[in-house]
Design goal:
alpha/beta; 11 helices; two-stranded antiparallel sheet
């Protein structure tokens, strides 16, 4: 029977058409290939997992190392920059002033300040009013404050009224607040002070400083002693004082007065502002129309205006020391541009 079946299969193959045999052959081949392909995904899946597992470790370690290095270098460079700028010494670029305004008629050298000026107890009592010799502003090294008006800058100039109208504690208040402002400066800052009345009376007049000085302890003490000698004079001419202050190339200028400028200095500066200077004005009990002029001057120089008045400290100083001399005629030190025979009333 088996032989008959084999013989029958052979006869069937021989008797079958060629296309049928070809079709059966290709179907068998496709079936074999399909069976083989079913086992391939398992191999590829395993290989893929092994590749990912290896990739997860090596690149991640390299990335962590690179991040640590870059951050460390950046922080070191930034810290070094800050330290360098903070510790860098500041050297002012100033030019010598060939002639000090308003002291052409100053006394000869043998005339001492004490011979010509009655010096009171001075501002010794103010030292106790300033805890620790300064405020938080001084610690910042770039700030200043005068009558509550804060500003930033390294070069500070003060233009202050010493006219005869600064009475009843006005001038004493101005001196106290001026001293406090200087005391709060850091040694990284420079300052200059000019009083104005009949003319300009610059820093440490009559032993005038031509340029700004650093806010050292020694110079602060010099200011303390000098302010005790300042007298008042007739007139309120401010242009010479402004010129002296602006010649110092300040970052900030504070202007304090109790009335109109006799030479219209404020109006001239308002019309022709100094673009690189911040100027703040303070009116000592001025009238509303004059307050507007002070405000216009400050606004033209990106500054602010503030009304100020007599303080309790100023009143106490006036009571303790008495009124400052008020000059109405030319003297050897004060009132050097007043008439020789005095102001005619």
């Amino acid at each position: 029977e088996e032989e008959e079946e084999r013989g029958g299969l052979s006869v069937w193959i021989r008797n079958s058409p060629a296309w049928l045999i070809s079709m059966l052959f290709h179907m068998a081949l496709i079936l074999i290939l399909a069976l083989l392909s079913l086992s391939v995904p398992e191999v590829r899946k395993e290989l893929s997992m092994l590749a990912n597992s290896a990739d997860e470790h090596v690149p991640l370690e390299e990335m962590e190392t690179e991040i640590d290095i870059s951050v460390e270098v950046e922080v070191e460079d930034f810290t070094e920059t800050l330290q360098t700028s903070d510790l860098e010494a500041f050297e002012p670029d100033v030019t010598a002033i060939s002639e000090t305004v308003g002291i052409q008629d100053a006394p000869p050298a043998e005339v001492s300040m004490n011979d010509a000026i009655v010096v009171g107890p001075g501002l010794d009592s103010l030292m106790a009013d300033i805890p620790g010799g300064g405020s938080e502003l001084a610690k910042m090294g770039q700030m200043t404050k005068f009558f509550g008006t804060e500003s930033s800058g390294r070069r500070i100039a003060f233009v202050v009224d010493n006219s005869n109208s600064m009475t009843q504690g006005r001038f004493e208040t101005a001196l106290i607040e001026l001293y406090k402002s200087v005391e709060q400066l850091s040694e990284n800052q420079y300052f200059y002070i000019v009083f104005y009345s009949d003319t300009a009376y610059p820093l440490f007049y009559p032993s005038t400083e031509a340029n700004m000085v650093r806010a050292t302890k020694e110079n602060k003490q010099r200011v303390h002693n000098w302010l005790a000698t300042i007298q008042m004079c007739y007139y309120t001419n401010g242009m010479e004082a402004f010129e002296l202050a602006l010649r110092q190339r300040p970052d900030v200028v504070y202007v304090l007065g109790d009335g109109a400028f006799g030479d219209r200095a404020d109006m001239k500066l308002t019309a022709n502002p100094m673009r690189h200077v911040t100027l703040h004005t303070l009116g000592m009990q001025v009238k509303p129309d004059l307050a507007k002029r002070f405000e216009a001057l400050a606004k033209a120089h990106r500054g602010t205006y503030r009304d100020v008045g007599i303080t309790d400290e100023g009143k106490a100083m006036l009571k303790r020391e008495g009124s400052r001399p008020r000059n109405t005629k030319r003297g050897p030190i004060w009132g050097v541009k007043l008439p020789v025979d005095g102001i005619k009333r």
